[in-house]
Structure formats: structure tokens, C-alpha cells
Write a structure and sequence with these properties.
The complex is a heterodimer of chains A (118) and B (107). With 118 residues, chain A is mainly beta. Chain A has no helices and 11 strands. Helix content of chain A is 0%, strand content 53%. In chain B, strand 7 and strand 8 form a beta hairpin. The chains are: A mainly beta (118), B mainly beta (107).
């Protein structure tokens, strides 16, 4: 079966960086992309960006450009997302997902709560 | 940037049909995906590419997309369908977005 298992909850101070990992299994890692979506408390889903594991190309929402780095390690079938210069409004659950051609995310990680607080 | 508009809430009685809309400029020219999210859980893909149902999703779930509106239709609504539903379009970074979400309440 397809599984995406994310790293555990994290707490950071404003201005710091956070890295969330997403360990995948059960499918051909390089045949799909990985997207990153976050959800602030009580709010809706917010698309952050995605990476094509096949060629390493990334694309991110304009509001995160310059602050986000997405990587994919084919040797460990693990994707990672680093967000820098954290602010309190970055407090959210961060999800990774397997992206099919055309952008549908058919499998999701369990989510990682990132809390930004001084 | 591209904006997707969903009604904040929809209510329906069990056994009836729920329709959740997703409005966007010429959305009919884009591929729309729909997700169901229950409290404390990750989203689940229920419709992709406007109207295709992933394996394991009940036939009661269907989708359509034309003009400026995409619609998720849930027939014979059950209590377990109560959740938040999000539409999504995929393109360049300028319009890889989610709608604001619709809370479906089963009366």
C-alpha cells in the first residue's frame, strides 16, 4: 500500500526555520510529484508548492517564494519541505501529498503540526 | 491570482442530494479536483479531473465542470458524508489554489 509518513510535531521561535520530512513507500517514488499543503487552525487548505521527483523541478505559491525549499531524495524515497523566517501566522498543520499528473493529490501524509511562538 | 469561491456551508437531509459549487473565472477550461476532510484527519480525494472517481469512493459522489462553475454532487447523502469539502484547480503557480471550503451538514 501507498504510505506517506511525516515527521513529528515541532515548535519554533519566530525567525527560525523548520524542516518537515515525508517518508514515502509502496509506489514508484520518481513517477509522481509531492505537494505541500498547510492548514492554519480552524482555516482552509492552502497550497504551498510541489516538487517533481522525476526532475527535481519545483513550483511554489508566490507568497512562499524565497522562503520555501522543497527537496526529494530518491535514495530514501523521502521528500522534505523547509520553511524559513517563520512567523506566528505560519502556525499550522503541514501536509505532504502524492501528486498525480494533472495535480490531484491522491495520498496524503498524516500532517505535521508546526507551532511558531516566542 | 486565481480565486475559487465556495459557499461556506450546505445543509441536506439524509437520503437527499447535496450540491457543492466552486466558482472561478472560466473554471470549465481547467481540471478540478475535490477533497473531503473530516475533523482531525487529512484530506481525501473524492473526485479528480472534474468527474473521475478514485478507487474506493462511492458512486454517490460525482462531479461536473462547465463555464464558471464546477459542482460536486453527493446523492443519497449519509451521515458519514458530513465533512468539509474543498475544490482545487491545478496549473501554474499563479492558480494552484484551493477553494475556501464548504462545510456539509447532514441534518
Amino acid at each position: 500500500q501507498v504510505h506517506l509518513v511525516q515527521s513529528g510535531a515541532d515548535m519554533k521561535k519566530p525567525g527560525a526555520s523548520v524542516k518537515v520530512s515525508c517518508k514515502t513507500s509502496g509506489y514508484s517514488f520518481a513517477s509522481f510529484g509531492v505537494s505541500w499543503v498547510r492548514q492554519a487552525p480552524g482555516q482552509g487548505l492552502e497550497w504551498m508548492g510541489w516538487i517533481s521527483v522525476y526532475n527535481g523541478n519545483t513550483d511554489s505559491a508566490q507568497k512562499f517564494q524565497g522562503r520555501i525549499t522543497m527537496t526529494a531524495d530518491t535514495s530514501t524515497t523521502t521528500a522534505s519541505m523547509e520553511l524559513r523566517s517563520l512567523r506566528s501566522d505560519d502556525t499550522a498543520i503541514y501536509y505532504c501529498g502524492r501528486v498525480m499528473v494533472g495535480g490531484a493529490t491522491d495520498y496524503w501524509g498524516q500532517g505535521t503540526l508546526v507551532t511558531v511562538s516566542s | 491570482s486565481y480565486v475559487l469561491s465556495q459557499p461556506p456551508s450546505v445543509s441536506v437531509a439524509p437520503g437527499k442530494t447535496a450540491r457543492i459549487t466552486c466558482g472561478g473565472n472560466n473554471i470549465g477550461t481547467k481540471s478540478v479536483h475535490w477533497y473531503q476532510q473530516k475533523p482531525g484527519q487529512a484530506p481525501v480525494l473524492v473526485i479528480h479531473y472534474d468527474s473521475d472517481r478514485p478507487s474506493g469512493i462511492p458512486e454517490r459522489f460525482s462531479g461536473s465542470n462547465s463555464g464558471n462553475t464546477a459542482t460536486l454532487t453527493i446523492s443519497r447523502v449519509e451521515a458519514r458524508d458530513e465533512a468539509d469539502y474543498y475544490c482545487q484547480v491545478w496549473g501554474t503557480s499563479s492558480y494552484q489554489v484551493f477553494g475556501g471550503g464548504t462545510k456539509l451538514t447532514v441534518l
